[in-house]
Amino acid sequence: MATFVLTDASVVINSVDLSDRVSSVTLSVEVDEQEDTAMGDTYRSRIGGLRDWSVDIEFHQDFGSSEVDDTIWPLVGTVAPIVIKPTSGAVSPTNPSYSGNVLVTEYSPIDGGVGDLATTSVSWPGAGPLTRATS
Q1: What is the rounded CA–CA span in Å between residue 56 and residue 47?
Q2: What is the pLDDT of residues 67-104, one digit of tens each?
Q3: Three-class SS of residue 74?
Q4: For the CA atoms of the chain, what is the radius of gyration?
């Protein structure tokens, strides 16, 4: 896959495909920086430590059956599986799948002012490893 415009990302939470309600998704992976500089070194030396990841998603709110609220509300305070892909197509080397469990730490079912589009944003930390699959 060459350069592309993100228009068809896939987001599945707890086996429910909410892709058609997602307006933005960000998957972030980071590694703790550990300094291992020793006496006699003239430059600082660093190695990677523990990994961490999180996901930020903005949804168009929907209170229907198997939609945003119906899916997320019962998960608050629990660990739930999530799968994210760049497109809704099959998993492949050019459309990898990222999967793991998130701790559903927050959810605002109603968030907005008069005349606003009903949306809700979440930011959840990973709860264990994040796996990348290409087949």
Answers
A1: 27
A2: 999 999 999 999 999 999 999 999 999 999 999 999 99
A3: helix
A4: 18
On whether the CB atoms of residues 31 and 46 are closer than 8 A, the answer is no
Give the global pTM. Answer: 0.91
**C-alpha span between 81 and 102 (Å, rounded):** 6
- CA dist 84 and 88 (Å) reads 9
Helix (H, G, I), strand (E, B) or coil at 52: strand
Q: Token pair 């709110």 is at which residue?
A: 61
* Arithmetic mean of pLDDT, 9-25: 98
Q: Which helix (H) or strand (E) holds 70?
A: helix 68-72
Structural tokens at position 48: 């990677």
Q: Which two tokens stand for residue 84?
A: 């994210």
CA–CA distance, 10 with 72 (Å, rounded to integer): 16
Between CA 52 and CA 91 the distance in angstroms is: 23
